[in-house]
Amino acid sequence: MGSGNGFYESEEFNLDAKWLVDPKLLFVGPRIGEGAHAKVYEGKYKNQNVAIKIVHKGETPEEIAKREGRFAREVAMLSRVQHKNLVKFIGACKEPVMVIVTELLLGGTLRKYLLNLRPRCLDTRVAVGFALDIARAMECLHSHGIIHRDLKPENLILTADHKTVKLADFGLAREESLTEMMTAETGTYRWMAPELYSTVTLRHGEKKHYNHKVDAYSFAIVLWELVHNKLPFEGMSNLQAAYAAAFKNVRPSAEDLPGDLALIVTSCWKEDPNARPNFSQIIQMLLQYLSTISPPEPMVPPRVFTSENAVLPPESPGTSSLMAIRDDSGETPKTSMETNPRGCFSCFNHCY
């Protein structure tokens, strides 16, 4: 991916002053996530609850340079793209360590949400609604020349009310080396477009050719998973799934999907990237499908005529209806930051 196709690439850490975070006002709390190159903590910045991503610097000069470049690109992308379905960027700093601060979303990852729901499935309207959130986020990224390349449930975060999905953890805005791509992200293969890793015979240093349609493929796998609430390519290891998708054109079964939804999924994961729809088209297809689904019957409890001071028994219609709509995944966790805030850089020895 280079400047020739209009997609974004940057190496320098040039950040507008309005996005620069003052480390002295940053407080780090409990760890809430961890990836190959960074750890994410719940925290506070200027009395605002935030998520704090601390990027590992690396050991060798080559590794340090590579991670600084990755950090600079991610910050550059976050600072120039805002959308209601993208995690909101608050700021960043490079010294004394590389830190990215974003809004804190307490609904957890889509992966965790789906696991907690199993063996049940999402209501179809909810699944398609989540898919629309994701598609709108991707349309925004692509309109800014950014390819995500790592779209999967782990990188999709829910709001506290579990009604909205936001995309987090932007992928690199340029191509990584083949070795890095094949080792850095465990489990990514199930959602990754085959053209990203089916070129294992390329000579060292040769560029792989792909475009933004890799994200359409990943979206199809995520949409399939939203509807079925099953792991795609179940029964296969990550590498088996990658091999089957890339060299045998194997895909999860779309037979159980409604016709119109099956068409969306299968068009998005076509082997030929150019035959896949873009996200503007995907959004229109999803909206069209959503319009064909009958809305669920609203649950209206029968009216109970009683005095204001009467105490309704636990089995009353009103109580039952409230219990029925209670979120099964439990209450939103409370932050511990109010009781035990710590200065950000007092904990860095423990962050690693």
Automatic annotation (TrEMBL):
Q: Does the keyword Transferase apply?
A: yes
Q: Which positions does UniProt annotate for ATP binding?
A: 53
Q: Per its record, how is this protein called by name? A: Protein kinase domain-containing protein
The protein's UniProt keywords, in alphabetical order, are: ATP-binding, Kinase, Nucleotide-binding, Serine/threonine-protein kinase, Transferase
User: Ranges for the Protein kinase domain?
Assistant: 26-290
Annotated family = Belongs to the protein kinase superfamily.
The catalytic activity, as recorded, is: L-seryl-[protein] + ATP = O-phospho-L-seryl-[protein] + ADP + H(+); L-threonyl-[protein] + ATP = O-phospho-L-threonyl-[protein] + ADP + H(+)
Q: Which GO terms describe its molecular function?
A: ATP binding; protein serine/threonine kinase activity
